[in-house]
Write a structure and sequence with these properties.
single chain, mainly alpha, Integrase_H2C2, about 130 residues, Integrase zinc-binding domain-containing protein, Endonuclease III, domain 1, 7 helices
Length: about 130
């Protein structure tokens, strides 16, 4: 991700934009390329380049298969992404698991209790 950040033009326009984000470069032990992170919230939140966005959203969304808003908040707490809300909404629209058929419970409207009672009594009980 650090190498992709070095080639990403969005990162440089994002850093030069007038925002509340405070970027800090962190050098990792195994790589010579530094990783750009936001430290304005007290947590290190790395900037995610375009090729890694779907992977990041795919890591956060399956934790609870929540909707777009909860997925957006989960990603926002951990990472910095441009067009975050749009990407999370598109990803959640195409998620298959919540759209799978749920068990169907059928209720018999005429249960046996009301079958033996006179209809006037049943209406009176329901009106109470």
């Amino acid at each position: 991700m650090a190498r992709a950040q070095a080639d990403d033009e969005e990162l440089f326009t994002f850093q030069s934009a007038n925002s509340n984000l405070v970027f800090k470069t962190i050098s990792l032990a195994l790589q010579s390329t530094p990783l750009h992170c936001d430290v304005s919230t007290g947590n290190y939140r790395p900037f995610v380049p375009k090729p890694f966005r779907t992977t990041i959203i795919n890591m956060i969304h399956p934790l609870a298969h929540s909707g777009a808003k909860a997925t957006t908040n989960g990603v926002k707490q951990r990472f910095i992404l441009t067009s975050l809300r749009k990407d999370c909404t598109e990803f959640c629209k195409h998620c298959i698991l919540p759209k799978s058929p749920k068990s169907v419970v059928t209720l018999n409207p005429q249960s046996m209790i009301f079958h033996y009672l006179p209809q006037d009594l049943v209406i009176f009980i329901w009106m109470l």
